[in-house]
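Hi all, long-time lurker, first post. I run a small reading group and we've been trying to get comfortable going from sequence to structure in the token notation. Rather than ask abstract questions, I figured I'd post a concrete chain and ask someone more experienced to write out its structure so we can walk through it together at our next meeting. Sequence below, copied exactly:
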Amino acid sequence: MHRADTRKVKNFIRSFGQNAKTDNLDAKALALYAYERKERLILYHKIDANHEKLKLLVERRLDLKQMLTQEKNRFQAPLNKPLQSGIKSVIICLEEQINILEDSVNKIIDENKELSRKREILLTVPGIGPITAITLLAILPELGQLNRKQVASLCGVAPYAQQSGEKSRYRRTYGGRRNLRPILFMAAMGARRKKGSELASFFERLEKKGKKPMVALVALMRKIVVISNAKIKEEFFTDN
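-- Answer (accepted) --
Happy to help. Here is the structure in token form:
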């Protein structure tokens, strides 16, 4: 079974100039979409209950972290001094909730041998810490089942060509799943500072070639997720 991307299917239907919408027309269009693209569609792998719970907990933690950052910024604002007492209470509450979520997430992973082993593998990649590892496991369950181009695209770090005729514009990255790019960005920042590591040397080589710092950083983000994908694939999805 393949779970279709609604945006892609909608654009596929529009390509025929079809404006009408009925259940019968949609069913025919979906059947045609599957028939024409069956060789390129990725099979859907159902996520088990533990992984689904893990995903919900991690996404909730990310939301609370964003709220915590906002409250800390409000606390430091000069005009908010009369409100600092109330803001401090909210900060304490958010920190407590985040700690509870982290304990729940770690418990789920510790009790699952596969998830626990995958976390160990991810922690061997420079730049990836405990929080980044559990976030990748939760938000990117396909890790290890995709090729390098697919996993980069899913994370929003794949450069897309902008070329037409003789014109060739700067390649840009976009798309991907929510929350993955910020996590990989922090991982890349950590990896570039780890002197002597292969990833730090990779970043330095790109800079010496004249690449802009942000371009080199995105390339490092891509390399981190590609290495992570390859390591997990080697242990879990390759016949020995």
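A couple of things your group might point at:
The CA atoms of residues 9 and 30 lie 7 Å apart.
The chain has three domains: 6-37, 49-111, 148-164+174-236.
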